[in-house]
Automatic annotation (TrEMBL):
SMART domains: HTH_ARAC. The lineage of its organism: Bacteria, Pseudomonadati, Pseudomonadota, Betaproteobacteria, Burkholderiales. Keywords: DNA-binding, Transcription, Transcription regulation. This is AraC family transcriptional regulator. Signal peptide: none annotated. It comes from Burkholderia lata (strain ATCC 17760 / DSM 23089 / LMG 22485 / NCIMB 9086 / R18194 / 383).
């Protein structure tokens, strides 16, 4: 079953043994949909009770006529509390912040990091879609330890992220949550058809320095990628950039490497571009340097990664 599910998304089975392996967004979406359909569980078996197919649709229909995001969040909380046995969602307002938190129903409940990540991302992604813009994150806290893939959080949760907290929670500005919105049913169908990508990956421009950096670097990927050049392009100082990167839990080299890794994985999977050409396109001076970097990023050489993808996919 595992081999069939991975093959449906053109993901090499060998990647399961590589902790630093990465897949493309489309592979993630296909894998998520395949697992959800096979389990009849839209949350992939991560909670004590299956979240049956159609749950997201009826959740979204219950939110569509809410007058503000805050009202939508209250409905979101009540909806999920009808479904979850191991946790309950709790919403509160304090010091001009709105907090959504996952609270254990029974002490000692097992923490499933991916389940917590998906629930927080679902709340953020839905609210951003309702507003038609990225809902700024004030803070995200997770009750589990800092994971080894922590650099990815800067893109999925652009803002301050803390680990080993008392409970998992996500925080927004009360002013943002008080904003009204208007969405139509025909827009909802498009959102649902694009799930889970539509709520996992934001399609809106926001103030995240990680997002701005990735956008700039992607447009200039073959050029020398220095923080000095980025500061000049964004009309700011290197010191300010470093401070903003630190606020989002990352640094320039990490963002740069993450983008080059994602582009490399996508092109190795979906094109016949040679390793030498790909190295040049990504701004490396030679293929050897690219191969060394790719193995560091993913645990596999570019050639082996491509072979595994073609064989297993």
């Amino acid at each position: 079953m595992t081999a069939q599910v991975l093959a449906s998304a053109a993901i090499p089975q060998s990647l399961l043994n590589q902790p630093d392996a990465r897949i493309t967004r489309q592979q993630y979406v296909t894998l998520y949909r395949t697992v959800a359909a096979s389990l009849d569980d839209e949350m992939l078996g991560l909670w004590s009770r299956p979240i049956r197919g159609g749950t997201l649709k009826y959740l979204m229909l219950s939110l569509l006529d809410a007058p503000t995001v805050l009202v939508a969040f209250n409905r979101f909380v009540r909806f999920w509390n009808l479904l979850l046995d191991d946790y309950r969602l709790h919403i509160s307002t304090k010091n001009d912040l709105v907090r959504l938190a996952l609270v254990e129903r029974m002490p000692g409940t097992q923490v499933t990091p991916l389940g917590h990540e998906l629930m927080m991302k679902l709340a953020h992604g839905i609210a951003s879609w309702l507003l038609g813009r990225e809902l700024a994150l004030q803070r995200v806290e997770f009750s589990f330890a800092r994971p080894r893939y922590v650099e990815d959080y800067a893109f999925l949760f652009p803002g301050a992220v803390q680990f080993d907290s008392g409970m998992t929670s996500i925080h927004f500005s009360y002013q943002d949550c008080a904003e009204p919105f208007k969405r139509e049913k025909h827009e909802l169908w498009a959102f649902l058809n694009a799930a889970p990508g539509a709520w996992t990956f934001s399609v809106f421009h926001h103030g995240s320095i990680v997002a701005k950096t990735r956008e700039h670097l992607e447009r200039n990927i073959a050029q020398p990628l220095t923080i000095q050049a980025l500061a000049q392009a964004l009309h700011t100082s290197v010191r300010t950039l470093n401070r903003r990167f630190a606020e989002e839990g990352t640094h320039f080299q990490q963002v740069k490497d993450g983008l080059r890794r994602d582009i490399a994985v996508d092109r190795l999977t979906n094109s016949n571009t040679s390793v030498a050409v790909l190295a040049f396109d990504l701004g490396f001076s030679d293929a050897t340097g690219f191969c060394r970097a790719f193995k560091h990023w993913t645990g596999s050489s570019p050639t082996d990664y491509r072979k595994d993808t073609r064989r297993d996919g």
